[in-house]
Amino acid sequence: MSDYQELIKNFERIRDYMRQFFLYGFKVRSEFGEKSGRTYDNERRRIESYLAGYIHADYTSRGKQVSVHMDSKQLSTNPLYAAWKSKSFTDNDLLLHFFLLDLLGNKNALTASALCDLLAERLETVPDLQTVRNKCREYERLGILEAQKNGKAFAYRLTPPMALENTPLYKDLMQAVKFCSEAMPFGIVGSTLLDRKFLHNDLFCWKHYFLVHTLEDQALLKILDAMKEHRTITFENHSVRSGNRTQITGLPLRIFVSTQTGRRYVCLYFFPKRRFNCLRLDCISKVKPLELCSEYELLREKLEKNLAFCWGVSFGGHSRMETLCMKLYIDEKREGHIINRLRREGRGGEVLKVREHVFLYTGVFFDANEMLSWVKSFTGRILDLQCSNDAALRKVTRDLEEMYEMYSEVG
Amino acid sequence: MELFEEIYGSYFQAVRKILLDAETKPLTWKDMEADILSVSSAESALNILPKLLDGAWSPLLHREADGCFSCALGQDQTEKTEDFLKLPLTKLQKSWIKALLLDQRFRLFFPEEALGELEKALEDVPALYDPADFHYFDRYGDGDPYEDPIYQNIFRTILKAMTERRPLFVAYESRKGNPLTLEVLPCRFQYSPKDDKFRLLCVSLSHCRPKQFHVMNVARMLACHISKNPVPRDFDWDISRFQRQAGEPVRIRIRNERNALERCMLRFANYEKQTVYEPESDTWLCSIYYDPADETELLIDLLSFGPVIRILGPEKFLNEVRRRVKRQHELFYSCVE
C-alpha cells in the first residue's frame, strides 16, 4: 500500500465507505463490489484512523469484518466530522498558511510579490509568485484575507477580527455553538469554530442522534444554494436497491428530515410529470445548478399546502387522499401516556374518545402505506382498523397475523 | 461554498497547536506528539512529526541547543496576541452563525439585547441556509416551548449553573403531576431532535452530599435558581458513570425482504449494535445494546417493523413482545374484556 495517504483529495471518495461501515458494520472486503480490493483496504485504513476507538474488527469465515460501534447517547461530538477534516494539501499549502498569518499579523497589507520577498528570507525554497498570489486569492475567497488595490497590484491583509470576538458575548456564542455544532444543519461548521478556540462540547449530550448524515452535507449545501436562487438542479442519483446511477433534473423546494432515522430528502418538483417527489440525500451526488425558475414561489406555496397531507415523504399514488381509522384500547387512568402518544405522534390526525377506555384516531393523508409502521407500534391495543386503501389494510392485518404465528411458535 | 477545505483540517489544527505551545516554551518530541493526539489521530502523528522536525515543514520550528523545538514564527510581530495563528472567521463560519440566528433553539441561549448585538455584527452576512427550508415531518408535536420567557429563563439559569459548576434549586413537576423541590448538580443537557426537548441530567443533593441521578424535562420545571451551597468536594461531573447499558442486548433476526436491513440499520443507527450475515438462512442477526430506560421505546420501534424482523431475546423482552402480539390477535379475533 505504498500509495496510501491518510488525507484525501476528494470527499466523495470516503463518503460511501464511511456510510456503509457506519450503518451496516458487517461488510467484508469482497462485498464492496464497485471498487478494487486495494481501494477497500485504503478506505478501511482511513476510517480506522479517523474513528480510532470506535472500530471493531472480527474475523469471520468470509474475511475480516470491520465495524463501527458507537452509542450516540455516550458521545459529545460526532466522530464522523473527522472525515471533513481530512482534506489533503501540499507542503507549500501548509507553509504558506502559517507564514502568511505570521507576515500579515502586524495588520500589514502586502502584495504577493512583497510577501514572496519576505518568504525568501525565511524559507530555503521559496514558492513562486503565482503560487503565493493564488493562495492569497483563495484566502480572499474564503474570507480570511481582504484585498485592496495598491497601484497595479493587490495588497492583502488579514480580515480584521469581528468586534464581537473581544466581548464576553463571544464566549456565550461559543456555548451555543457547542449545542448547534451537533444539533443544527452543517454542524461541522460549528465544530471548526470550536477548533479555532480549542474548545470542545462539555455541556450537551444527545438522544436520537443520527451521526451518519453529516456525510451528505456538501450535496445539501449545493441544493440549498440552488433553492436560494430559485434554480433547478441536476444530479446523479444512486439507487441503493438497484445499484443504478441515473441523472435527474428537478426544482428543489424543501428538505424533508426524519428525526426518527436522521434520513434527509430533497423535495423536488418534476415539470414533465407535474408532481412533487422526495429523493434521499444520501443517494445524491454531483449536484449542479441549472436555470432560474420563474414559478418558484408559486410551486413552493403549492407544496406548503400539501405538507399537511404528507405522513412522511410520499405524495401518494392515484387515489390522492387516504383515510385511516384506528380504534385503540387505552386505560385512561393508568395509560395517559398512550393518549399523549396518539396526540404528539399523530401528525395532526384527530383523536376522539369513543367511550371509556376506547379512543379513535383518524388521519387523512396522501399515502396510508407510510402510516403502517406507526400503526404496528400500537400492537396489543388495536381494537379495529379501517382504511380507504384496501391493499394497505390487508398488508397491516396480514403483518399482525404473521407476527402472531411467528411468536406463537414454540422455541 | 465548500465544507471540505484544508484550513479546517486536523493537520493544520495540530500544527497550530504545536506552534502555539512552542511559542510559550520549547517542546520535546513527546510534547508535540501529545499536541497532535489531542486534536487528531495516532496515524497523523506519524505523518506530521517527521515533516515538522526534519522535513518540508521544518522552517516553522527552531531546533534549540538542548534538542527541544521553539516556534520560528511571530518574531516580527509587534502586538502579538496569545493566539496569533488563529484564522479570522471565514465567510462560511459567519454565514452559519447568521443562519443560527433564525433558529429558536439558538436564540434560547441569549437575552434579547445580546441577540440584537449578534444581528448587528452579522448584518451584512448572508445566512448559509434558512431553517424554514427544512420540514421535520416526524418530529413529535409536543416539543419544548422555546419562545416562552419562563422556559427561556430556566434554560439560561441552568446553563449558567452548569458553566460555573454550581448547584441549583429546582421546582419540578413530576410525571404524575406532583410538585417536587430538589437541590441538584447540573451535569449536562440532553437534547433529542425527535422529541424536540431538552432534558437536564443531574445529581440531587441531600445534606450537601450527592444522592441520586435524575433526568428532568426542562419544560416541566416550574422555577430554578442558583444555590449558594458549595459543590461537594471531589464531585465528578462526568455523567458517563450514570449511563447504563442493559446486561444483555436485544437480539433480532432480519429477513432479506422489503428493504428491512437498510431500514433497520438506519432506524437503530443511534444504538450501539453488531450485525452478522447468516448465508444459510439469508438473514442477518443483529444485537442492539441499549439503556434500560429506553426499553419500551426500543420495543415499540421493533414492533413497528412487523414480521420482517424477529425478536429472539432476551427472554423478558421477548415475553413482552409475545404478550402484546397475542393480545393483538385476541383483540381482532376473539371476544376480549
Structural summary, described in words:
The complex is a heterodimer of chains A (411) and B (337). Chain A is α+β, with helices and mostly antiparallel strands. Chain A has helices at residues 11-23, 37-50, 81-84, 91-103, 112-122, 129-142, 168-183, 187-196, 217-228, 296-307, 336-345, 372-376, 390-408, and strands at 55-60, 63-68, 110-111, 145-150, 153-158, 204-206, 231-238, 245-257, 264-270, 275-280, 284-292, 322-329, 350-355, 358-365, 382-387. In chain A, the strands form four sheets. Chain A has a five-stranded antiparallel β-sheet. With 337 residues, chain B is of the alpha+beta class. Chain B folds into four domains: 6-71, Arc Repressor Mutant, subunit A (Orthogonal Bundle); 91-133, no CATH class; 149-230, SH3 type barrels, CATH 2.30.30; 250-333, Alpha-Beta Plaits (2-Layer Sandwich), CATH 3.30.70. Chain B contains ten helices and twelve strands. In chain B, the strands form three sheets. Chain B has a five-stranded antiparallel β-sheet, covered by helices on one side. In chain B, strands 10-11-9-12 form a four-stranded antiparallel β-sheet. In chain B, α1 packs across α2 and α2 packs across α3. Chain B is globular, with a radius of gyration of 27 Å. Chain B starts with 9 loop residues before the first helix and ends with a helix. At the A-B interface, α1, α4, α7, α8 and β6 of A face α1, α3, α4, α6 and β3 of B. β6 of chain A pairs parallel with β5 (179-192) of chain B.
